[in-house]
Write a structure and sequence with these properties.
CATH superfamily: Ribonuclease H-like superfamily/Ribonuclease H
Structural class: alpha/beta
Number of domains: 1
Distance between the termini: 38 Å
Helix content: 25-40%
Shape: globular
Number of helices: 7
Strand content: 15-25%
CATH topology: Nucleotidyltransferase, domain 5
Number of strands: 7
Largest sheet: 5 strands, mixed
Length: 259
């Protein structure tokens, strides 16, 4: 009886998913921030025609190089694939990636040991280098490394800005996280950053690519070393770009993305 009731009501009490609610002090400000990100996505095709790159950027940290102690047995008629439960750990890697909102490709991925502010600034520098005279708009979350001194100095260098940046923690653009963010958001710069509200990662389109990477590669794979993990991540991204890449259709109706 209970089972029939649950089936009719389309309820599944045996299933549960983690959910992170957005946190905001001012609902109106939150709405404006969400609208700002959505506006960037909406104008991306037009901007692309005018030579501006709009990309969604983030890090995927702690990717484990797990090696199964026994080979995986393939599926057979009446039997699912069987993976060894035990594994050996060979360390972790961090992926920093950009998702091109218009082309649907993942560009200039970086796979390495750490994700320091210098690592992130270097990643942005590598990305801009593929079209050094173009305008770039990066959509990302509000992690402290996304508002760092290294990133401010990179933008000032790339945009040939001669103004004194001040001293971190004391004065000028570098004084605080807030002053650095204001500088990095500046729409008059050739390279600028648009930040999603806190705890609103669903606004960042590159997160969908990370989900695809987990489902298609990481969840079932076995890696003998960090080098093998890095090589296979990069190989998968190349495969993704050649065979699967397409822009996401942006909507805002509870679930923000539909393919």
């Amino acid at each position: 009886m209970r089972g029939a009731f649950l089936k009719d009501a389309d309820l599944k009490p045996h299933l549960s998913r983690y959910w992170l609610n957005a946190k905001y002090d001012d609902p109106e400000t939150f709405k404006q921030q969400v609208a700002g990100v959505c506006d960037v996505y909406a104008m991306a095709p037009t901007a692309h025609q005018q030579g501006t790159h709009v990309v969604s950027t983030d890090e995927m940290t702690g990717i484990q190089a797990l090696e199964r102690t026994r080979p995986t047995l393939p599926m057979e008629p009446g039997k699912p694939e069987r993976r060894e439960f035990e594994y050996e750990r060979h360390g972790t890697q961090t992926l920093i990636a950009n998702f091109d909102v218009v082309t649907g490709e993942v560009i200039t991925p970086t796979v390495g040991q750490t994700r320091t502010e210098e690592d992130f600034a270097e990643h942005i520098k590598r990305t801009v280098k593929i079209d050094p005279q173009a305008k770039w708009v990066f959509v990302m979350d509000q992690l402290n490394t996304h508002k760092s001194e290294a990133l401010v100095r990179l933008v000032a260098e790339q945009c040939v800005l001669k103004d004194d940046l001040g001293i971190k923690g004391k004065s000028g653009v570098l004084q605080s996280m807030e002053t650095r963010e204001t500088f990095l958001r500046d729409a008059t710069h050739r390279i600028r950053f648009v930040y999603t509200p806190k705890h609103a990662s669903w606004l960042n389109q590159v997160e969908i690519c990370f989900s695809i990477l987990v489902r298609k590669l990481l969840r079932r794979a076995s890696f003998k070393s960090k080098d093998e993990l890095r090589e296979r991540i990069l190989a998968f991204i190349d495969y993704f770009n050649r065979t699967m890449a397409k822009p996401f259709k942006w909507t805002y109706a509870g679930r923000p993305l539909r393919c």
